[in-house]
TrEMBL record:
Homodimer. This is 3-isopropylmalate dehydrogenase. It comes from the Bacteria. Binds 1 Mg(2+) or Mn(2+) ion per subunit. Transmembrane segments: none annotated.
Length: 359
């Protein structure tokens, strides 16, 4: 029996999580394993109910669990709080740091059935789009100290610190090279070494680490060029190795190239293999509460959890296949329907459950 901490969070989080738990229940029945799922509050809802974004009880539950299934946090309601108390900085970043979840895997692939939903030219999509973003998740400018604001009037200043240690770069580079060995043996490291000292070290360490992976081809690209090449010639990329901020930005671009923010899952993993699994997108306040969010990113994140933390690759594969089948059948939430007929979040969840049963 595996213990799962389920943290739906805010906005569309609870809506897509409900569908994901249905899919997990179907997977347990089909593959005869047991998950003990326990819900806990995180993010804005936790601020409202308990006065803090990451209550002690939620952290304790996560510590006692085999994996964390996370929805998303944040929204306009909490934006006026002091930054450190807001859902993102008060819950999500501390969770990532506390569990040392340094390696964020974001696999972005255009499903054949959704080629038409990609904003890329059909000729480019036709060459295939299948990229793994390996994003460092516990360092960089999001965590570097000092951060702050000081002064007032026109001289008021605000600052963040971009910092990486050799150790941090080496371990994420290793993750990227190892991942590339299971794919097409190509890593492109994304940096800004022409301007940022942090990124000069990044490139040096990536080059040094690459010597231990002679079977993997390493290229380097500046982040501005990378965003452009992703649109122009994405076929050149296999594994994209990125720091925290560049990976955050690039992975949203990758998600949209696959057709929607609601399609991109993610796994955030520590050196010990403990993981938090969440969609790459956020709480989508613009569509929250309408029952139209796409649950696929959350469902595929649960499949990643089964694969990476629970050693249930069989069930994970079956969920991946069920999602692909549902898309082949033409089931579409509004974000991928291109104005055509669309189903609700719940109907998409039901369709995946049905496809899983039938497989
Ligand atoms: N991991 C997390 O909890 C994250 C939280 N956030 C927070 O979420 C809030 C909203 O952030 P935004 O910048 O608007 O980014 P967002 O990712 O929530 O939304 C961007 C766009 O993608 C769409 N979208 C996202 N997920 C979707 C889904 N499953 N189905 C259909 N459409 C989907 C939204 O409707 C919106 O148009 C903010 O408070 C932000 O800080 C943002 C990113 C990650
Ligand atoms: C709080 C943010 C760093 C969350 C986010 O945008 C992400 O992880 O992709
Ligand atoms: Mg992001």
């Amino acid at each position: 029996m595996f213990k799962i901490a389920v943290l739906p969070g805010d906005g569309i989080g609870p809506e897509v999580m409900e569908e994901t738990l249905k899919v997990l229940a179907a997977a347990q029945e089909k593959f005869s394993f047991e998950l003990a799922c326990t819900n806990a509050d995180v993010g804005g809802i936790a601020i409202d109910r308990h006065g803090q974004a990451l209550p002690e009880a939620t952290l304790e539950l996560c510590e006692k669990s085999d994996a964390i299934l996370f929805g998303s946090v944040g929204g306009p309601k909490w934006e006026s709080l002091p930054p450190a108390r807001q859902p993102e900085r008060g819950a999500l970043l501390p969770l990532r740091k506390n569990f040392n979840l340094f390696c964020n895997l974001r696999p972005a692939k255009v499903f054949p059935a959704l080629a038409g939903a990609s904003p890329l030219h059909p000729d480019i999509v036709g060459q295939g789009f299948d990229i793994l973003c390996v994003r460092e998740l516990t360092g960089d400018i999001y965590f570097g100290q000092p951060k702050g604001r000081e002064g007032s009037g026109p001289d008021e200043r605000a600052f963040d610190t971009m910092v990486y240690t050799r150790r941090e770069i080496e371990r994420i580079a290793r993750s990227a090279f190892e991942a590339a060995r299971l794919r097409n043996h190509r890593v492109t490291s994304v940096d800004k070494a022409n301007v940022l000292t942090t990124m000069v070290l990044w490139r040096e360490v990536v080059v040094e680490t690459a010597r231990q992976y002679p079977d993997v081809t390493l290229n380097h690209i500046y982040v501005d060029n990378a965003t452009m090449q992703l649109v122009k010639n994405p076929h050149q990329f296999d594994v994209l190795l990125c720091g925290n901020m560049f990976g955050d930005i690039i992975s949203d671009e990758c998600a949209m190239i696959t057709g929607s923010m609601g399609l991109l899952p993610s796994a955030s993993i520590s050196e010990s293999g403990f993981g938090l699994y969440e969609p790459a997108g956020g709480s989508a306040p613009d569509i929250a509460g309408q029952g139209i969010a796409n649950p696929i990113a959350q469902i595929l994140s649960a499949a990643m959890m089964l694969r990476y933390s629970l050693d249930r690759g069989d069930a994970a594969d079956a969920i991946d296949v069920a999602v692909a089948r549902v898309l082949e059948e033409g089931v579409r939430t509004p974000d991928i329907a291109a104005g055509g007929p669309a189903v609700s979040t719940r109907e998409m969840g039901d369709a995946v459950v049905r496809a899983l049963h039938d497989a």
